[in-house]
Amino acid sequence: MIELSEAPLELDALVAAVRTDACGAVVTFLGVVRESSEDARPVAGLSYEAYADMALPEMRAIADEASRTFGGARVAIVHRTGRLALGEASVAVAVAAPHRAVAFDACEFAIDELKRRVPIWKKEHYRDGAAGWRENRAP
Amino acid sequence: MRVRVVPFARLRELVGEGALLRDLPDGTTAGDAWDALAIEFPALVELERSTRLARNGSFVTRLSPLADGDELALLPPYGGG
């Protein structure tokens, strides 16, 4: 399950997509809209846009790499697009694996690589009415 | 040849549209297309160093030639997650 979604994220759907009877561990990650920016400005919400033609193949590549690197882990990634309010989830990752150590590692790998490699952009909307594009820090 | 230029995020806002059709001479490279757009929209100039170019979904250098019907995406630094 690799998707971009304009609708609110449903973590249960990701978990259902990755879990199998061979997997003793499921690790999930939610990125959530926070009330303040990195420079402490009060945030009212975020908006995300994606270049789907490149983002979806790159998300699939990350899931495949995670699976190869971390012992057959099964990875689902869904990222929101459009306008999000405080507290809404912007990205969800679910990883199922036979044991928890690889599931944690694969989940961290997937979200780190997504932030670095997937063409998605974020605009912060501040409570004072201003807005600005925010870039991920270089690793 | 006709090329569809697709700017994202701050580049899209700066250009004012999500897609632009441009008729360009044969032999135009990705960098030439950027330069032509930067003449139309001078504010692009200072964003050139941070912008990556992709032709039909794959990264290209400025020297990569374009062909009729290509989509040239202009990608500023990412902010997903």
Please describe what this structure looks like.
The complex is a heterodimer of chains A (139) and B (81). With 139 residues, chain A is an alpha+beta fold. Chain A has a single domain (2-127), classed as Molybdopterin biosynthesis MoaE subunit (Aldehyde Oxidoreductase, domain 3, Alpha-Beta Complex), CATH 3.90.1170. Chain A has helices at 11-18, 52-69, 100-117; strands at 2-5, 25-32, 43-50, 74-80, 82-85, 89-97, 120-126, 131-134. In chain A, strands 1-4-6-2 form a 4-stranded mixed beta sheet, sandwiched between helices. A 4-stranded antiparallel beta sheet of chain A has the order 5-3-7-8, with no helix packed on it. In chain A, helix 2 (52-69) runs antiparallel to helix 3 (100-117). The longest helix of chain A has 18 residues, at 52-69. The two termini of chain A are 26 Å apart. Chain B has helices at 10-15, 30-40, and strands at residues 2-7, 20-23, 52-55, 58-60, 71-75. In chain B, a hairpin with a 2-residue loop joins strand 3 (52-55) and strand 4. Chain B has a single domain (2-75), classed as Ubiquitin-like (UB roll) (Roll). The longest helix of chain B has 11 residues, at 30-40. By secondary structure, chain B is of the alpha+beta class. In chain B, strands 2-1-5-3-4 form a 5-stranded mixed beta sheet. Chain A binds chain B through residues 31, 48-51, 53-55, 57, 79, 90-91, 111, 114-123, 133-136, and chain B through 6, 8-10, 12, 54, 57, 71, 73, 75-81.
